[in-house]
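Exercise: predict the fold of this chain.
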Amino acid sequence: MQGFITVSLSNKTLLTRDDTVLTLANSIYSLTKNDYGVELQKMDWYERFESTFFFNMSSTVALKYGGYGVRGHYVFGPCGTMSRTLLNALWDLDIPARKLQLLNNQYGKGGGHTMVEYFDNGKWKVIAPSDQAQIWRNQKGEIASVAEIQSDRAIFNQVYERYPQFPYLFDNPRHINWSKLPVWVQESIKTILGEERFNKMETPRWYDHPRQAIFYACLFFLGVSLFILGLYYRNSLYKIVIKSIKSTIPNINTVPMFKGKTSIHV
């Protein structure tokens, strides 16, 4: 990622954060817009696993092979991979950024798209990496926020100049797509957090760092396995010691501890 950032930003006149973000987004689009997909056999075993697993293609694999998805895989679309790659680049530069999910409205329309928001000059600005770094500008000429796009139809309509058939809407913007989880999991989380916090939650960073997420998941399961194994052997050792003591001291089952009739049974 650092190499990509260095090459993308070198010899560029970057006066503002907007300039940096737009330059990176355009570079990502140019490098990964391969609509044919990456052939699975070109990848090593881990890249194959990673790219067809729950997390889908990572930024590293996308930049390495110049594509946003695996050819023939059922999950194949540019918005998730390009947004993930831009997010990772911005985070590496310490630029606050988060995922923006456009979900269906109450009529089942306008959803199914992933974008990016980055924080600059007191607001979260919107950019769509997979739409050739599409941005919307407010009446002042600034890159617009979600609220500004929602409040002024003229701002939203700017996208139709480039994409007349743009099918997505800002009716139901979120920062995490819960639909990837089973309904019972969604409802459980909503019950614990409350609906307001549930709707405002952001996609955790580890989700867009698949290698890191898988590594820590493996460490967690290894730790749990070792803990359970330790308990098992500890219990087995305890039984062996008790059995050994009982065989050495025949009357261990009833050892008088106090005068009188009271005794402790093992």
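Check your answer against the key: The CA atoms of residues 37 and 72 lie 8 Å apart.
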